[in-house]
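Sample 3 of the quickstart, ligand NAP:
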Amino acid sequence: MMEKYLEGKVALVTGGTKGIGYATAKRLAERGATVVINYFKSRDAAIVAVDKLKELGSTESFAVRCNMAKYEKVPALFDEIKDRLGKLDIFISNAAMGMYSDMLDVSRRNWEVSIDTNAYAFLLGTQCAVPIMPEGGRIIGLSSLGSFKYIPGYASIGVGKAAIENLIKYFAVELADRKITANVVCGGFIDTDALKLFPTYEKIKEDVLERTPWGRLGTPEDLADVVDFLASERSRWITGQTIVVDGGNSLL
Ligand SMILES: NC(=O)c1ccc[n+]([C@@H]2O[C@H](COP(=O)([O-])OP(=O)(O)OC[C@H]3O[C@@H](n4cnc5c(N)ncnc54)[C@H](OP(=O)(O)O)[C@@H]3O)[C@@H](O)[C@H]2O)c1
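Result:
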C-alpha cells in the first residue's frame, strides 16, 4: 500500500490516456490525489483510464477532450476543473506531438505542431492553471534528451523541449511568491507509442540499449516516480530545475 501524501490534492495530467501520462496519472491516484486527465484523439482509452483511476481511489476522476495547443480551447478545461473540483494543485504538462525531419527541412506546419504542442501548450496551460492553484502548487513539464543533444530527425521537437526547460526558469521566479514550484522531468528513451513513430525506431532502440549504462530502455514508471516526487511536499526547495532521468544514457 502506497503512502497517500497527495490526499486532498487535485492534479491534472495532460495526455493521460497512455504512455508516460497514464503511468503518472495512476501513480498520483495511488498517492491519494484526485486526478483529472486530458486527451485529444483517444476517447476510448480515456474512458478506460478514468475507470482505472477510480479503481485506484480517485473517485472523482474525469477526462476532458482538448487540444492543448489551441488557445481558444484550453481555458475551458481549467474552468471545468474549477467548477467541479474547486482548485488545481498539480499541473503536469505531458501531452505533446511532433513532426520528424532534419532541421533544414522543417516546414511551417512541422514547426507549428512541434512548438505549439510542446512549448505553447505548457505556457498556456500554466497561465490557466496558476489562477486556480493554491500555495504549495506544482507545475511540472516533460522534456527529453533532444533538448540538449542531437537526435536525428528530432529537430523542431528538440527546440520545443528546450523551450519547456527554459519556461520553468521564468515560472520558478515569477511563481515563488505564490509558493508554487516549477520543474521539468527530462526523460531518456521510453518505449511508448510516441517512440514507435520515429522513422528510425528500430535503430534508436538498438543504439539506446548499447549506449545506456543500465542496458535497457526507460519505462513510463521510471518517469512517473520522479514526477510523483516533484509533486510531493518533499520537493519543496527544488524549483526551476530540469531533472534528467535516463539511466545514464546522455553521459556517453
Ligand atoms: N517516449 C519517450 O521516449 C519520451 C522520452 C522523454 C519525454 N517524453 C515526453 O513525455 C510526454 C509523453 O510521451 P509518451 O511517449 O507517453 O507519448 P504517447 O504515448 O504518444 O502519449 C501522448 C499523449 O498525449 C496526448 N496528446 C498528444 N497531443 C495532444 C494534444 N495536442 N492535446 C492533448 N493531448 C494530446 C495523447 O492523447 P490522444 O491519444 O488522445 O491524442 C496521449 O495521451 C511527451 O511530452 C514526450 O515528449 C517521451
